[in-house]
Each structure stands twice: as structure tokens, then as C-alpha cells.
Amino acid sequence: MQAIILLGAPGAGKGTIAEGIKAATDFIHVSTGDMLRAAVKAGRPVGLEAKSYMEKGELVPDGVIMKIVTARIEEGSPTDRYMFDGFPRTTEQARLLDEVLVAHNGKLLYVFLLDVARDILVDRLAGRRVCKNCGAVYHIRNIPPKVAGVCDACGGPLYQRADDSETTVLNRLDVFQKQTRTLIDYYRKKGVLKHVDAGKPKEETQAEIVAMLQKPALRK
């Protein structure tokens, strides 16, 4: 089993870039954010446990995150290649993930740090709108729907998630910077950290990462 990590502040484009990498490689996209939101929507215990933290833009406790991640890995096969999107977010989560990988004979290949200027991050998040019915994502300027407030795909109403309000966005960015400083140092010391400019067009960012992942040596 092999794994890579996409690390970046909220709004850095982790999910979008992950989809591009997924389409070009055999890495399985594992988004803890999506899994947590699904757990919240389904009313599962782990989702209810995480809900109050997510609505305030705070980090979900390590124990809750690891329950979801470990379960996902155990569902897979020994030859799977995982792409973690926005996880881990703390050094403790990183250590716990190392333990899980070792226990499953896994190897961490790279941690891609997606670098984006703060003002761009705020604009991306505060302008985001999501369909209540199908979950399609839009942006009021960059990816506007054909009809304001209405989803192009299913006609459902668009809304701004509570954690995308400008006040909460600023708090999320502050929390990210504070909590991940030591995490970035942790992966830098392990020799797996790769800085990637995610402020440029997503296709260029995706291509840069895919080129590194297609090296034959990584299969060994």
C-alpha cells in the first residue's frame, strides 16, 4: 500500500486538484472532509461528534478523524494507493497515520503542500456556493451558475455553507496556520514534503504532481 497527502489551507483547491490526479492515476481519493460531512448528514455517531467543531471552523479532534481513516484503509486491499485530501492536519494525526501505514505495510511517498496567497483563499471560500440537493459546487464569480442561486445540474437551491462565511473563513485560515506549522516541519524533516504553487491554473498544478507520481521507481 502506498499513500500521498495533499496538504493546504482551506480554499487551496485540494479537492479539485485531487480529482484531476485521480483521473490521471490509480490513486484512490480519500477526503476526510467529505467523509465527515457524510457522517453528519447521515446522523452517525462520529458525525454528530464532529458537527459542532466543523460549524465553528475548528479542527475535528484526532480521535474522530482516525476512526474514519482507519476504517477506510481496512476496507481496501494491500495494493491500494491512497491520496489523502486535507489529512493529517496535526502532528499527532501524522504520527497516528504513520502507525496505521506501518501496521498495513504501507509507505508514504510524498506530502504535497499547496501554496496559495491568503487573499486568494478568502475570495475562493467566501464566494463558494453549494447545491443543497446534489452537492455541486459553484463560485459567484469564477464558476457562476447560469441562473443565480440555482444549480445547473439539478435545479436545486444554492447556499453558502456556514464554514464559508468570511468571518469563519478567516478563523479557519488562522487555525490552519497555527496548527499545521509543526506538521509541515515534521514532513520536511522526513524528506517527503514537496511545495507546489496552487495559485496557478489547476491544470498546471495537477500536471506537476502527476509527473512526480508517474515515476516508475515509486512502484517499488
Keywords, please?
Rossmann fold; 5-stranded parallel beta sheet; 3-stranded antiparallel beta sheet; 8 helices
Helical fraction: 40-55%
CATH class, named: Alpha Beta
Largest sheet: 5 strands, parallel
How many whole angstroms does the radius of gyration measure? 17 Å
Question: At the third CATH level, what is the topology name?
Answer: Rossmann fold
Instruction: Describe the strand arrangement of the main beta sheet, using strand numbers.
Output: 2-3-1-4-8
Distance between the termini: 11 Å
Number of helices: 8
Written account of the structure:
With 220 residues, the protein is α/β, with parallel strands linked by helices. It has a single domain, classed as P-loop containing nucleotide triphosphate hydrolases (Rossmann fold, 3-Layer(aba) Sandwich). Helix content is 48%, strand content 17%. It contains 8 helices and 8 strands, in the order E-H-E-H-H-H-E-H-E-H-E-E-E-H-E-H. It has helices spanning 14-24, 32-42, 45-55, 62-75, 91-103, 118-126, 166-190, 202-213, and strands at 2-7, 28-31, 81-85, 107-115, 128-131, 137-139, 158-159, 193-197. Strands 2-3-1-4-8 form a 5-stranded parallel β-sheet, with helices on both faces. Strands 6-5-7 form a 3-stranded antiparallel β-sheet. The longest helix is centred in the last third of the chain and has 25 residues, at 166-190.
